Amino acid sequence: MFKVLLVDDEPNVRMGIKMMIPWEEIGCEIIGEAEDGDDGLSKIMISRPDIVIADIKMPGKTGIEMTEAAKALGFKGKVIILSGYSDFSYAKTAISLGVENFILKPVDEDELTEAIKAAGEKIKSEREKSYRQEIGSEYLYEQRVKGLFAGDEGHIADAAAAGQYTSYCAAVIGFDDGQELGSDCGAAVRKFFDNMKNVDIVSVDISGVLGLLFKDWEYEAVKEALIRLNEALMGRAFIACGSSVRSPGEICRSYGEAKSIYANKFIFRHCGIAAPDLLKQRRDNDDTDYASQLYAYMEINDTEKLSRTLDMFMESMQTMDNTPEKAKISCITLLMDIRSRIVRSASDKKPETLISDEFVSHIGGLSSLRDIIEEIRKCLISVSDACFSKTTKSNMERVVQYIRANYNRELRLEMLAGIFGYNSAYLGKVFHQYTGENFNNYLDEIRISEAKRLLAEEDYKVYEVAEMVGYSNINYFHNKFKKYVGVSPLSYKKSFGRDE
């Protein structure tokens, strides 16, 4: 409905116009009346009508003076002038002000109706044209930014020729759970940057993921703004940021980095915002045996060190070259390794205390690396409590217990010191005071004792027994065995009637 304001100093004229025109039929409604030119100007600026019907001769400002003043203040509506004067000079002035029609009194109903309808059609046409121009302008704006993201030479040349900015940085924003970025979220992003200069925001794919281009922003300021945006969105979105670059031709590199990180949001989701300088560029030669470390902390029921090691494991996978598939495989492999260790050394425990196949399948379906690590953390702590529950034993008792449970692995005093949080020299001294033996002799005695049992009771070959008790070198085992037992392993075996 078009809004119409009536301005005439004669109430009867205003009433007659209100009664004679079928306003609803022609898509109009009367929103107000004014009794003179000054009152009319005030109401025009307050109510912003689409159409004003005004008398030319009124106290104070005339209809033409009122129109002139309203146009000067930015009024864009249509004005129809009514007059009892046939002087052409009035019509000429009215036309120069953009008045739509000049109708002589007494007013003819049909003539005024047609004039109002014509004004309405013109308003409609202008609005459609303005909308098309706005849409076209938005389209060109989006194409320009997308062209820079894609490395289009034409758009790069245009931006370079303009030479307005000295730095650029691209970012990508979308929901972290794979759902489409709702219009409310997109609007929230645009509203957040409303009062900030030099930020272009465009949709970069059909799911509603947004691309942002920061121009002449300090890189730290970009990251700070994105952190605040993430807080404003209450964690509903995942934000990836590219590097800061110096020329339009490099924008595509910054955008490519952001897009690559966004594609791996499974890995980086928990980072708040993810940016190249906050992530490792390539996978380091990390040969840490995380399964051994985690299992060691499970055995001594040290949940604090277990958690820290899991965090280190997760950090090792936060690299630009990693993928969700690789990360899931790494996590599942870690679990299976730990499970096999539990089965070997805690076989007397109930099956439900172990890591189940259902749990392994469950973590494979989670949507982020952080979620997987948190589930693994809870699982390992639970298994540690079930299989290796906390005791009131002294630290040295727990060290001895650990050695007896793991004598067949590669054990070193330095490794035990790291597990139990000691300096290795101090641990060696305290261990000797507690057991009466140095660490190496104590370990050899346990290994040789188990080797004697295996040689006497089982049908293993000597080299197999050596490996089973923790000696990788058969000659070293032979010498150690003879030192502690007095005879060779083979002679000892034969003394029980067992041939090699």
Description:
The protein has 500 residues and is an alpha/beta fold. The chain folds into four domains: 2-125, Response regulator (Rossmann fold, 3-Layer(aba) Sandwich); 153-278, Reverse transcriptase/Diguanylate cyclase domain (Alpha-Beta Plaits), CATH 3.30.70.270; 290-387; 395-494, Orthogonal Bundle (Arc Repressor Mutant, subunit A), CATH 1.10.10. 56% of the residues lie in helices and 12% in strands. It has 22 helices and ten strands. Helix 12 (303-316) packs antiparallel against helix 15. It is rod-shaped, with a radius of gyration of 42 Å.
Question: Topology of this structure?
Answer:
Blueprint: E1 2-7, H1 11-20, E2 28-34, H2 37-47, E3 51-55, H3 63-72, E4 78-83, H4 88-96, E5 101-104, H5 109-150, H6 153-162, E6 168-175, H7 183-192, E7 199-203, E8 210-215, H8 219-232, E9 237-245, H9 251-263, H10 265-268, E10 273-274, H11 290-299, H12 303-316, H13 324-345, H14 357-364, H15 369-387, H16 395-406, H17 413-420, H18 424-435, H19 439-457, H20 462-468, H21 474-485, H22 489-494
Parallel strand pairs: 1-2, 1-3, 3-4, 4-5, 9-10
Antiparallel strand pairs: 6-8, 6-9, 7-8
Helix pairs in contact: 2-3, 5-6, 11-12, 11-13, 11-15, 12-15, 13-15, 19-21
Please tag this protein with its features.
500 residues, alpha/beta, Rossmann fold, Alpha-Beta Plaits, five-stranded mixed sheet, 56% helix
The helix-and-strand class reads alpha/beta
Which percent range describes the beta-strand content?
5-15%
Q: Strand order, biggest sheet?
A: 2-1-3-4-5
Mean pLDDT: 85
Radius of gyration: 42 Å
Distance between the termini: 105 Å
What is the level-2 CATH architecture name of the largest domain? 2-Layer Sandwich
Q: Percentage of helical residues?
A: 55-70%
Query: What would the CATH topology of the largest domain be?
Result: Alpha-Beta Plaits
The CATH superfamily label of the largest domain reads: Reverse transcriptase/Diguanylate cyclase domain
At the first level of CATH, the class of the largest domain is Alpha Beta
Tell the overall outline: rod-shaped
- Report low-confidence residues grouped into runs of 5 or more: 177-182
Total strand segments: 10
Major β-sheet, in short? 5 strands, parallel
The domain tally reads 4
Number of DSSP helical runs:
22
